[in-house]
Amino acid sequence: MSDKHSNIGNTVVKEILDWIYAIVLALGIAMIIHIFIIQPTRVSGESMENTLQNGEYLIVTKWTHVMRETPEYGQIVIIDSRVNRERTWADDIEEPLMNYVAVFNKDAQGSDVWVKRVIGRPGDTLEFKDGHVWRNGEELQEDYTKDAKMNYVRSTPVKVPEGYVFVMGDNRNHSSDSRFIGPVPVDHVLGKVAYAF
C-alpha cells in the first residue's frame, strides 16, 4: 500500500514540476520576444493627440533598438526620456516588464518612457519660429500636429549631434520632448510604433 501512495506522490510532484518548467519556459520566451522583437504598451497622456489618444494600445517593434538603428523622419517611437544617463542591459529587461504590466494597468507605466515623433536626425539643424519647425532651412509641413501653430520660440538653432535624434509630440503645445530634455541618444529609442488600437 505504501508503494502505491509513494507512486501517486511521485506522480503529483512530477506533474507540478512539469507545470513549473512549462511556465518558466513560457515566461522566458515571452521575455525574449518583448526585449528583442515586439512589445505591447499603452499611451499615457495627451502629448501625441490627435494622432494617438490617452489609453490607446500600441504594438512596438524592438528590432531597431536592438540594432541601434537611427529612426526615420516622422516615425513614432518610444523613448527613455532619461537622456543624461547611460542605459544598461538591466534597463532593457525592466522596461518591457513595466510596459507589459501597463497594458493591463496604465498607472503602472513608468513616467520615463515617452511616445514621440522623430523630427530631427544626426546632423540636422532645427529652428523654431513663426509657430513652426524648420529643418535645415525649410519649414516642415506637418499635418499631424494638433494645433496649427505651436507656442514655442527659440532664438538659437539646435544642431542634432551624431548618434542622437530630436523628437517632439504632435500636441506641440502640451508635450514634454526634445525641446526641454534635449536630443535623445539612439540607444534611448526603445522601438517604433507599428500599430495603434
Give a quick summary of the entry.
Keywords: Hydrolase, Membrane, Protease, Transmembrane, Transmembrane helix. The chain has 197 residues and is α+β, with helices and mostly antiparallel strands. The protein is 30% helix and 26% strand.
Could you name the CATH homologous superfamily of the largest domain?
A: Umud Fragment, subunit A
- Quaternary structure classification: single chain
The number of distinct β-strands equals 11
What is the string of SSEs from the N terminus onward?
Answer: HEEHEHEEEEEEHEE
Largest sheet: 7 strands, antiparallel
Give descriptors for this structure.
2 domains; alpha+beta; EC 3.4.21.89; 197 residues
Description:
This protein is of the alpha+beta class. It folds into 2 domains: 36 residues; 160 residues, Ribbon (Umud Fragment, subunit A). Helices cover 30% and strands 26% of the residues. It is built from 4 helices and 11 strands; from the N terminus they run αββαβαββββββαββ. The strands form 2 sheets. The chain has a 7-stranded antiparallel sheet. A 4-stranded antiparallel sheet has the order 7-6-5-8, with no helix packed on it. A hairpin with a 2-residue loop joins β5 and β6. The radius of gyration is 22 Å and the shape is elongated. It starts with a helix and ends with a strand. The model has no long low-confidence stretch (mean pLDDT 90).
